[in-house]
Amino acid sequence: MKKCYINGIGCISAQKTFEGGFLDEVEVNTTDVIFSAKNPDYKAFISPGAIRRMAKGVKMGIAASQYALKEANVEIPDAIITGTGMGCLQDSEKFLKAIIDNKEQFLTPTSFIQSTHNTVGAQIALNLQCKGYNFTYVNGAISLESALVDALLQIETREAGTILAGGVDETSGHTLSLYELIGLIKKKDQGPIDVLNPKTPGAVFSEGAGFFVIENQKKSTTYATLEAVGTQNTLQESEVISFIENFLNTNNLKPQDIDAVVLGNNGDVAFDGYYNEAETLFSNTPQVYYKHLCGEYNTATSFGLWTALHILKKQEIPQILQKNQVTKHPINRVLLYNHYRGKDHSLTLLNHADL
């Protein structure tokens, strides 16, 4: 396949990840069960009049994407590919509430128009005046990975040379209350929460946006190459090892060829056993975890990908991310493994740009 270089990244999360630096300032929260994203100064990217009308997910998407483009020295990409699990939840709730409150009469279309899942990609394109390929994937916890697969195919088939791809999800009050009711979110009185040694079901939920400029040429800003992405809808815990081994075999690799593995542990005692299986395959490999910093959401792997790219570029794993005490240098290949509640399993392979 043709080389796909990741030349710019922008990330908004529950940590201070937006304006450069690699987790220079970290907040470890072991008591709250819902994290809010740290907002940058949106006025630097969006006009004040437009900010008032935009949901948080749209603002995060525009800011993160523009930061990534600026870092890669790109003005207008050839394509924009977005992944989102739940879309613009805040406007969806506004519209549904208006239906109930007004007894299905005298409804204004604004909230409905802005509630659709492709709103983020559309607003990014409008802001950039980009008239190229624009597609949104809504595939649960593999929404971002679906966008990355599309980007790889676009580069391979020469449909595009510069692609802006990313994932974004926002939180909203009513939806979170439903998640709490059905046990997807941990109960508030269960702290302190230890992601690595879970004792209770559910996860800590959050929101965020991560965008990546993927190009067919290496630049001075290049972080790494995106080599391959693999997904599978459902797996038994006993099938995790074969799933990973088959993916590595397809890419002519063995487990010992991986220099760091990034795992998506979220502290849910009912489902983190999948990651325990993966750990046995990489017992002699540095293991990284990250959701204790960013929380869980459908496109949380954007934070994981942001983390992996910095590890490859800086050749270091901050202690706050270390799941074991194994070290390895140089770090040339990083594998990300994620799933959500036993479904939507994904593997993402990154290589050092000089390989």
UniProtKB/TrEMBL annotation:
Q: Name one GO biological process term.
A: fatty acid biosynthetic process
Give the molecular function GO annotations.
3-oxoacyl-[acyl-carrier-protein] synthase activity
- Which InterPro entries has this protein been placed in? Beta-ketoacyl_synthase, Ketoacyl_synth_N, Thiolase-like
Domain spans labelled Beta-ketoacyl synthase-like N-terminal = 46-218
- Any one GO cellular component localisation term in the record: cytosol
One Pfam match, given by its short name, reads ketoacyl-synt
Gene3D superfamilies found in the cross-reference section: 3.40.47.10
Keyword annotations of the record: Transferase
Q: Does the keyword GTP-binding apply?
A: no
Q: Which domain of life is it from?
A: Bacteria
The record's section on PANTHER family has: 3-OXOACYL-[ACYL-CARRIER-PROTEIN] SYNTHASE, MITOCHONDRIAL, POLYKETIDE SYNTHASE-RELATED
This protein is called 3-oxoacyl-ACP synthase
Which organism does this record belong to?
Planktosalinus lacus
